[in-house]
Structure formats: structure tokens, C-alpha cells
Amino acid sequence: MRKVRVGFIGVGGIGSVHLKNIALIEQAEMAAVCDISEDQATAVGKKYHIPAYTDVDKMLEETALDALFICVPPFAHGDIEEKAAKKGIHIMVEKPVGLNLDNVKRKTAVIKASGIICATGYCLRYLDTVAKAKEYLQGKQIAMVNSYYLTKFVPTPWYREQSKSGGQLVEQATHILDFNSLFSRRYR
């Protein structure tokens, strides 16, 4: 069986976590990395023995990919998703996919039209406690869901700038919205 060729755009922060995890999967072959920091891209490329890029378009043109992890800050998504989708590359996009609803709707339309698989980085739904809650709530009617997101500030320079991150609601508390929608859809 042929391995799934995986690329990464954004190799710091959460991107580095995805890199480590994909490297452990036998059925995956890490194919290329891209980051705006040439030093970081080069270091990660050397670590995993794969080509490193600082230009998204060049990486997508030169590297045959089956899947792509897009792990860039909210303000930096641009049209990366659309470019990958048009090439038939399945994508895992770290949230949020954009800061402007019209842009996000445009991305959605291109992704749907392409027929690719698209996932977004909502990880709370996979916690073991969620599985236990689902089991407990099976067949029960939920009257109210109350959630909290307790965390520390992410140590990145753009995180506290609302114009770049979307603010706390868009960048972090959106996990709670996803979490709540998971239960409201599943147990209505």
C-alpha cells in the first residue's frame, strides 16, 4: 500500500505537534514543510529529511502531496486552503480558518466543490471525558450545556492582537462552541 504523502505549512507551535505525531504513523510519508521563517523551515526539513520551503506556491508546485496540514495564525491563511483544494490535496486546517466570514464562506465553497476531505483542528471532541459524557447522555434529553475554557495565554506575538487572532472568542473559546454543538447535535 502506498503511503500518504503529507506536507506542512507552518512548523512552529501546533504545527510542530502535528509533525511529531505524523512522523509516528507508518502509513504516512512526510513530504515537505513550509514556514515564513527560513531558519525554522530548514531546521525542520533537516530533522525529518524532507524539502523545506518559505514559499507556499513553490512547495505546492514542486511537491506531490496527498494531505496538507495548514498550521498558520488566523491572519495568515490567505488563500492557502483554496490552492490546496484546487490541486485535490486533502487538508487539515488549524482553526480559525479566517477572520472574515465572507472569506471563510469563499473557502468553504472552493473546498466543497473540490471534493477533498477537510478537517479543522477541534481537539476537545476527542477527549476521553467526552466519550464518557456521550455514553452517559445517550438517550437523555439535554436542557442546558454550560462550558468553560481555562487556559493560559499562548506565547506568540500575534495572539493578543485582535486584528491578527480574532480575539479570545475566535482563537480559543471557539473550541467550546464546537464542543457544545457536538452535544446539541448528537443528543437532540
Key attributes of the depicted protein:
6 strands; alpha/beta; 188 residues; 6-stranded parallel β-sheet; 14% strand
Shape: globular
Low-pLDDT sequence parts: none
C-alpha Rg (nearest Å): 18 Å
C-alpha termini separation: 41 Å
The main sheet comes to: 6 strands, parallel
Within the largest sheet, what's the order of strands? 3-2-1-4-5-6
- Give the class from helix and strand content and strand pairing: alpha/beta
Number of DSSP helical runs: 9
**Level of helix content?**
40-55%
Encode the helix/strand succession as letters: EHEHEHEHEHEHHHH
* Rounded average pLDDT: 89
β-strand percent reads: 5-15%
Number of strands: 6
Plain-language structure description:
The protein contains nine helices and six strands. With 188 residues, the chain is an alpha/beta fold. It has a six-stranded parallel sheet with strand order 3-2-1-4-5-6, with helices on both faces. It is globular and about 55 Å long.
